[in-house]
Amino acid sequence: MGLKLGIVGATGAVGIEAIKLLEKSRIEISELRLFASSRSVGKKISFLGEELAVQELSSNALRNLDFVFFSAGSSISAIFAPKAKENGAVVIDNSSFFRMKPEVPLVVPEVNGEDLKNHQGIIANPNCTTALLSVALWPIHKIATVERVIVSTYQAVSGAGAKALLELDTQVRHYVQGKPIVPEVFPEQIAFNVFSHNSPIAENGYNGEENKVIQELKKIFHCPGLNVCATCIRVPVFRAHCESVVVETARKITAEETRRILASSPGVEVIDDPQNGLFPTPIKASGKKEVLVGRIREDLSHPRSISFFLSGDQLLKGAAWNALQILQCLIN
Questions:
Q1: Which of 68, 108, 329 is nearest to 222 (CA)?
Q2: Has 241 been annotated as catalytic?
Q3: Is 314 annotated as a binding residue?
Q4: Is 234 a known ligand-binding residue?
Q5: Short name of one Pfam family for this protein (predicted)?
């Protein structure tokens, strides 16, 4: 008998990627139920040669499932994830609602997959920016102990959903055609512009995305004293986030040593060819499960610091692929 799976938010960007990944996986599935908002009910989505109708989410609809992926936002997860758990399913949640709850594991399998042993029916997927960063940072931490991280992000619009993708496309067309540009999804024009991540600024002066990176990285690494400074920026790129990272370590490591470590680390692909100008880019990262890392160099301003640049597909490793990896860990 195969697994009975559910996907909440099946018509969203992450849900669509999860369906594609499940099709390509070797996981035996006896039933797949797709859930979305009321306006998507009845929509047909192809899966392994079948046309599956999107269902309306309810407590009864979540019965008799083994695992449920949630990717429909915190408000939906807060209500329905506990109901799925009560019905006997294990929940893998992509929202921020459960991430910082002490009893809920926050998991990147390459980093802290062992935390899955302690789950109580709900497992949290990290923020996409945190997930990408942790994959590249963890191998360095294991061999040199990371003491401080300074990260600046360049985040693609797809992280804000399908409407944000359409807004960038529309604004570029309007710019070329000389038409007025009116922001609707974002607070400012996104075409040919960059601005602070569109999440509220907290009392500590950091926006919501920055605070997620700071808090979640400490939890994933089990390092509450880890020093993290994050600056998160939205850029006019359709897909795949980038991050500029400066890492201070307890002992000095060279750029070459860092390059060797990362090249042999799971989930990482090193693209670092200065002679030919080959480095990570969003276009190279789009559609890939690995986090691309390059521009690896020693920080000339600090005796024990390494700098690098990464790019990763936030819809895959930052969301759907990380969730599927968690499922694979649970069933293997």
A1: 108
A2: yes
A3: yes
A4: yes
A5: Semialdhyde_dhC
Would you say 267 is a known binding-site residue? Answer: no
pLDDT of 37: 87
Going by C-alpha positions, the residue among 284, 286, 294 that lies closest to residue 313 is 286
Please check whether residues 230 and 288 belong to one and the same domain.
yes
How many whole angstroms separate alpha carbon 136 and alpha carbon 145? 13
- Taking the whole predicted model, whether its pTM rises above 0.90 is answered as yes
The annotation status of 13 as a binding-site residue, yes or no, is: yes
The CATH number that applies at residue 138 is 3.30.360.10
85 and 155, same domain (yes or no): no
* Burial category of 130 from C-beta neighbours within 10 Å (exposed 0-12, middle 13-18, buried 19 and up): buried
Catalytic residue among 128, 141, 197, 242: 128
Catalytic residue (one of 141, 197, 241, 242): 241
Give the count of domains, the chain: 2
Q: Do both 77 and 183 map to the same domain?
A: no
CATH of the domain at 75: 3.40.50.720
Query: Are residue 187 and residue 302 in the same domain, yes or no?
Result: yes
Report CA-CA distances (Å) from 184 to 13, 111, 167. Answer: 19, 38, 8
Letter for the amino acid at 6? G
| Residue 155 annotated as binding site | yes
Q: Are residues 170 and 282 in the same domain?
A: yes
Domain with 279, as residue range(s), is: 130-314
User: CA gyration radius for the chain?
Assistant: 20
